[in-house]
Amino acid sequence: MYATRMRRLRPVPDAQPQMMFRTIHGYRRAFRMTGEGPALLLLHGIGDNSSTWTEVIPHLAENFTVIAPDLLGHGRSDKPRADYSIAAYANGMRDLLSALGIDHATVIGHSLGGGVAMQFAYQFPQMVDRLILVSAGGVTKDVHPLLRLAATPIVNEALKLLRLPGAVPVMRWAGTLLTRLHGTPLRPGAVLHDTPDLVRILADLPDPTAHEAYLRTLRAVVDWRGQMVTILDRCYLTESVPVQLIWGDRDTVIPVSHAHLAHAAMPGSRLEIFEGAGHFPFRDDPMRFLHTVEKFLSDTRPLPFDETRWRQLLSTGTAEKPITTDPSMRTAVLDAVGSNQRSAT
């Protein structure tokens, strides 16, 4: 069964997107763009870049215009001393889409990109057709211990050792070794399932400007206690937006329990759990990922933004009614919303 699921996607001739650039507010923003049709905006996670979507972009581009940016401070985008909060990232995505002449899009966000996608839907609801949240951040505080440690000053200084000659090859070697030691990404019981990808991301941070941008982004959302922001207090605003949640049941970065919390708090959302997959389900099982996304896109239709209804929802505020009837899950959602250690997005 696992061998079948791990088949690589067939190549799509002449469909690999080229890196493009736009200067907005004086900063160069890199992005990949290809295909024709309704717009899909793909947002990567912290420390990553748009190349993480390389395998699935050509297939999505057969029916959609795909835009996959390098978030500011990541990849080949500029890395200024700037605001790297998720609200600022949402503003940046609004500006990029506007510069490209795109009025609305379905937003697919992974990890940090999932948090940005939800913030984008909150700040600019008229621009969002659908939301697809993949192992998304910003639900509740649990997060991989490596990210908690990376947010501390001592480990921040240790990360500078990546700049030493030979450090990056050693990091990449360690990632390869971990992958071999713990089997394929779908091997049951792989405790360090997501560590090779975390090593891959850290190995891309030897450049001082990339390192500083990474730390600024991390500190905006994570401290030693875990994630600092939550979207649960405003999930009720997604009632008219089609939402698909995708998670791996072996996610060691953001536990699958977050998927169930978000699903309970988002009225009408769909939930797909990938058995054996980790924090990167679109890399662990790209065929299933594409099938899930394409089915969701074909089954749902964007609803026109209703400003009157939006105002009514804001006036009513968070209520228990939209939350699942499961008493334990309802309690878990309300406890997470009410935590005094959390900040709203």
UniProtKB/TrEMBL annotation:
Domain AB hydrolase-1: 38-285
A GO molecular function held by the record: monoacylglycerol lipase activity
Source species, domain of life: Bacteria
GO biological process: acylglycerol catabolic process
Gene3D superfamilies reported for this sequence: alpha/beta hydrolase (3.40.50.1820)
GO CC, alphabetical: membrane
InterPro entries assigned to the protein according to its UniProt record, in alphabetical order: AB_hydrolase_1, AB_hydrolase_fold, AB_hydrolase_sf
Designated name of the protein: Pimeloyl-ACP methyl ester carboxylesterase
Biological source species: Rhodococcus jostii
Top-level taxonomy: Bacteria, Bacillati, Actinomycetota, Actinomycetes, Mycobacteriales
